Give the backbone structure.
Amino acid sequence: MDLLEYQVKEWFGKIGIPVLPSQRIDHPTDLKRLKIRFPIVLKSQVHGAERAKAGGVRFAETTIDAIAAAQNIFSLPIWGELPEVVLAESQYDANQEFYLAVVLDTAVCRPVLLGCKEADIDWESAGEKMHYVVVEQEFSPFYARRLALKMGLQGTLMQSVSSVVEKMYELFVQKDLDLVEINPLAVSATSQVMALNGKVRVNERAIKRHPDLAQMAAKIISRHTSTEINGILGDWDGVEMHGKIGILGNGTGSVMATLDLVANAGGKPGVCLNLRHAFLTDTTPTTFRDRLATGLKILEADKSIQVILINFMGSIPQTEEVVEVIARVVQQDNNELKSQVVHSNGSKNRQEPNSPLVVRLAGSEFDAARKYLATLKTPSNALLVVENLDEAVAAAVRLAKPMANKK
Amino acid sequence: MDLLEYQVKEWFGKIGIPVLPSQRIDHPTDLKRLKIRFPIVLKSQVHGAERAKAGGVRFAETTIDAIAAAQNIFSLPIWGELPEVVLAESQYDANQEFYLAVVLDTAVCRPVLLGCKEADIDWESAGEKMHYVVVEQEFSPFYARRLALKMGLQGTLMQSVSSVVEKMYELFVQKDLDLVEINPLAVSATSQVMALNGKVRVNERAIKRHPDLAQMAAKIISRHTSTEINGILGDWDGVEMHGKIGILGNGTGSVMATLDLVANAGGKPGVCLNLRHAFLTDTTPTTFRDRLATGLKILEADKSIQVILINFMGSIPQTEEVVEVIARVVQQDNNELKSQVVHSNGSKNRQEPNSPLVVRLAGSEFDAARKYLATLKTPSNALLVVENLDEAVAAAVRLAKPMANKK
Amino acid sequence: MNLKPESKVLIQGFCEFISGTHVAQMTAYGTNLVAGVNPGCGGQELHGLPVFDLVEEVIEQFGAIDTTIICVDPYDVLDAALEAIASHIRQIIIITAGVPPLDMVQLLRKAEACETLVVGPNSPGIIVPGKILLGTQPSEFYTPGAVGIVSRSSTLTYEIAYELTKAGLGQSISVSIGSDAIVGSSFLQWLQILDEDETTQAIVLVGQPGGGSEEAAARYIAEAIDKPVIAYIAGRQAPPGKSWRQTGTLATFIGRDPNFGTAQSKLAALKEAQVPVAERPSQIPELLRKEIN
Amino acid sequence: MNLKPESKVLIQGFCEFISGTHVAQMTAYGTNLVAGVNPGCGGQELHGLPVFDLVEEVIEQFGAIDTTIICVDPYDVLDAALEAIASHIRQIIIITAGVPPLDMVQLLRKAEACETLVVGPNSPGIIVPGKILLGTQPSEFYTPGAVGIVSRSSTLTYEIAYELTKAGLGQSISVSIGSDAIVGSSFLQWLQILDEDETTQAIVLVGQPGGGSEEAAARYIAEAIDKPVIAYIAGRQAPPGKSWRQTGTLATFIGRDPNFGTAQSKLAALKEAQVPVAERPSQIPELLRKEIN
């Protein structure tokens, strides 16, 4: 989950990272009660990158200018997102600008401190200019000094930069972050440092143990579409493609392998979901059964999906209830089909049944499930239960083809 | 530094330890705007023990009763301390009462979790009933469960008690405490737990790195006498006795050894101060020189002190400045003597010079100092410089005797 | 690694990642499962196991424990593992998925200092077919034999075992190191164990996008592994963005390939190391046969 | 413990607890003081020592360091010590007084895990008269000889050395373990070192109120020390309340004597162990002579 700039700066201020005086503007008229001095800069609070290029950053010297600029920014979508908040901030005379970050490096299984004596880095050629320190053991300020010295800093500037890095690390651990970045960290002519812009990415698995973060996430979920959420909260635990075959599985590797098989068999994979752990959008604890039900709902709601391929093998939690969920979905089709014929609302497509389900079940734990599913009365093609994975994939691909543009 | 109950409960509430609804009362009329429901209990916020016995805890069922009780409490000193605040709190039906604490055990160099299934323990016989767990490595909740199980708890009560201990530990580390105690932790008929009273002792060496604590300490220092401060903030780094010979030294052991020598030579040691590190009352960083000056001032202000014995040996920081401080004190005597004779304020004793100084200096670093002090013109007996410790002690004892009741 | 059938095993927690069926399966397989630990439930019995509140109580009753299988809620994994380490358990298998990565960083620092092997999190564990089952791998897909499997996936691990079994190729050891971004034991450690294991004649390496462990494994195979290795990488057709999630967008800074974390990068490394790569799980047996013969 | 004169020594920090005189004294004594570390001052020279920003820079230039003497501000001691441990320095002497006790708890956990010896905090260090000086003990009061001194005090340690020297009794090793409530190395460790040291023929133990280390030392002397030991305990005449400060008022709970921490408790334990106790520092030489002869 990525925070907005004004939220990042609130956190920075609280933990003691120097930030400029600023004020949150919810409506252009708030600028009449501005508590900071002109000239100011007004910044659109959106998640998308390249906000300045898109016109989301404007300078103002008077209240009238500021209100006009804010009106402009409030009505300017950036990467499809309209800001709910604009940040008004003092201006700062920077002599130098640095880049600082703390990031979790999964290759070494440790947090890494990053620093560069340039801001706005060209990522392609950053290698030589970017310095890093791996936080091998429990953090202690000497790791931050190591970074500042590697960056070539000395004396008091070395100490004030390393003290900012210390606080970034404190935030990183306190809030379970994947990334905290200051870009740029401005250095004044008198060697004072100031975080002019910052980025914070919260690890999605830890959100639920921080009440403040859980609240932020819930707010984002309630206000945005799933694709936007995907962009803001980080990836779903799944893959979003635009083909016709939706995939549900248990475990990333298994879902990926199924996706590959579908593609290799000439099919087009659509949204693929891993049901092994909670979705980002789940605000309360979920069970496997719940996630299957949610996953099926997401795929049914997706208009491009024509076939749903479920791949379960071995043992999954709550086998009986899981089979019940599948049975209910398939039978609901039946009921819905009838009810929709009666209360047709004019949309011809809605009279059609839901996407057919190809369910691959391998392993003796599913013996009872297979028998039970075989007894269900379903519309033809609504449910196919297969044991062999290659066969299941072939069936899904076959079912997807003749039904093109069905929905 | 010991916190008052209402401060403890604020901390408990913030960290998630269950406390009753309560309200801070600064003046009896605040009870007209009471936000909690009657019946309530009103508790005097003082540092002294046995508050209830002294009449500092009263129950009230109506506003009129409550105001009367509060007036009573506000005018009742306990161990010489008048409360600035009274705490109004809801009442609670306890089924059982436990004792919980986290304390730093210096013998094992680790924090220790303590728990007992009885509150209001008789310390003498607590041994068998009190259970403890040493937090050997970094704390993790399993240490708290170990304690709760040793206490003989089970199921959900075991879990809710261990979760309280977890939070106590979090507070202990976050605020650098010597002790955090809940006494009693009430358990309701439905196994809900509630911290009815608590005690927090902050380690005095860590106060300065917590801005909130430093502020509390400064407030206490500004409002109380030094003896009260001694009681509230914990011991001075020194010993307070009531004899005639004040002692200043560098290091606890050296001060203690000097004290013993004085006592063994028939003298009566008074306040003894160790100048090796900052006094509790120092709110800003100090140097050795500063502490010597403060120490001399404290002893001069103490009316029972008749001789000051300084024991320095080997090397002390800032030797030259330190000698300068001694010289100035001795010479100031001269000046003050004159000025006091002129502007006599009627108090005959104040015409007398300050207490004589016996300065023991051993080691070659003091060679220059000895020479310099020998050149000073001082009233007879105002300054005696000796190298041998036993001799210095003998001189101090000798000087203290004929001047009995001088001040 | 102690994988002897008689070694003593404990289960910590019984959340959704483990079921009575799994426990029964382990017991039926002969795993010496002595007890379960579930705080607040001490004195009860669950899935035929005596349940205790603390690990130290189990050790008091049954003596030293060799391996613990952790299935507590994700936010309690660190505590459970630290409790196990404090009780001198030196092999930890974490089945639970969804553990916050910084908890894992803290755990791994401690585990390294105490020379403790951590497998997982988000791993179905280890099986030595016919001998011992430590985790939730369904034993029915396995038969004893000479192929070692090391994988980052959960279900895909036994998907591949199933293909081998169907093709008449038994397995020596199968381990999933866990599909999370940060896991304890590495491909390298397990390749070495399998290389030294006398029963193992060939190795199947199963990878997926994210991180750089397959690349490191490829280099290690080229340098140090004498036995034949076949690889399978899931997710070739998945959009590449997926992999960034596990690496932090800043991984390139520290001198890494911009392709870092993609299936393509892994395939290239394996090709460079001359490790044959299967197109799909069902192709693995035929590739293996070519290498073994 | 490596106390060889040629072992390499570093100073971290130059706060009020160390002066140019101390540094000059160590150098004059032949201590192989290679550098100082003072963040923000790298490249400068102080008291004749080259100053660096980081410990690792010193090691890069001078090779492995045996001992570091920490004199940073009290709140920076933990960081300095962790930096030293990360740079594989295995002997740490902390001169600084006023270190928060919970910082020490954290440091000691780490030091124990890394087998690092920590002396102090609030200690003037170690002297091997005529050979090496590690800390701020004034060497002028010492002469080489056969009496080992182990003490919790600072100034009182060399007060006693001075008495010995004046009486013609030289010293083998003198160490102050530090007078804080929580310190690294213990009386027991040093009694063992002195017992094994070939030069040492007799030991002086110097204690003060607070904690239970003198009591533990008394029991250890009775059980394990063959050489004669003389004790001196300061603070017999001090009001007993003082000792509580260092123990937490709750110490009695865990099965301890209500007298715990007082000078009286220490004297009783020494009597029980039949260790002769001096009344005053100047009495120590005569007691020693009785034991040696």
In short: The radius of gyration of chain B is 26 Å. Chains B and A do not touch (no CB pair under 8 Å). The mean pLDDT of chain B is 85.
